[in-house]
Amino acid sequence: MSIGGIEAGGTRWTCAVGGGSEVERIESFPTTTPAATLGRAIEFFAAVPDLEAVGVGAFGPVEVNRSSPRWGTITTTPKPGWRDTDVVAPLAAALGVPIALDTDVNAAAVGEWTYGAARGLDSFVYLTVGTGIGGGAFVHGRPVHGLLHPEIGHMLVPHDRRRDPFPGSCPFHGDCLEGLASGTALRERWGRPGEELDDPQVWELEAEYLGLGLANVVLVLAAERIVLGGGVGSAPGLLPRIRARLREALAGYLDSPRLAAAGIDAYLVAPALGPRAGVIGAIELARAAP
To answer: What confidence tens digit (pLDDT) does each residue in 96-127 have?
Structure first.
């Protein structure tokens, strides 16, 4: 039998079939309209023999509470055309298999906890910095769900408007963490995408905001490790800058060797599974599908 996974990101969807940390078949395509994007995913899995289940890690906010009549629906997303889109029902109807669902960052966290940089840990946080910013928290080996799901990217961080007059890119909060430090914020503030920016000033400001956000994560969740992924998160030289800013923001308040100069490199780390963490985690979600 075959197990499928979808990393349903706001920029691209990646569909795969596989087991463990390996994938046997994979296809990635741009996130366009809901009908076209879901149609391509259905076409991919319809050609898979003996498909048993599919896991979906979706951009959000997404309703992850199975008892809700809106389970499987992307809700108040700022992505044009996707608000109130049910991603689960069309897949289930077309493929006739159980569908598991979580956020895209929680799926990546599942992948890293099962096979990657968070193996053996009781608690950790996966943060992805790309077009937007999202975070998945793992406690006692399970993703944290509650009222909805954590929205770490929308926390509020200090913003000195005299030094950085950019108002922020978030359509809901303006200068939340996502509004100040996402790939969208980089492009709108500096006029070019992150991959075209090489001015140290750009990346020092980026590291400052991410360091402040991660300091809040550390103080609130006290996670054993933070895994930082995403296209912006993997920018060359950014991770060491964020580590320095994180230690600066914490100001020595937490007396832990993991947060000291000698331990921080093993505390704030890159994903071991790289860009496939999300789709590998989605496959793992499918294994637990009811």
So the answer is: 999 999 999 999 999 999 999 999 999 999 99
Q: State phi, psi for 289 to the nearest 5 degrees.
A: -65, 135
Q: Give the count of alpha carbons within 13 A of 99, CB side only.
A: 25
CA 58 to chain centroid, in Å, comes to 9
Q: Which of 82, 88, 61 is nearest to 147 (CA)?
A: 61
Q: 174: left (phi > 0), else alpha (psi -120 to 50), else beta?
A: left
Please check whether residues 13 and 125 belong to one and the same domain.
no
Phi, psi torsion values for 164, nearest 5 degrees: -130, 90
Rounded distance between C-alpha atoms, residue 54 and residue 286, angstroms: 5
The pTM of the full predicted model, rounded to 2 decimals, is 0.91
DSSP state of 237: T
- Judge contact between 100 and 286, C-beta under 8 A: yes
Tell me, yes or no, whether 253 and 163 share the same domain. Answer: yes
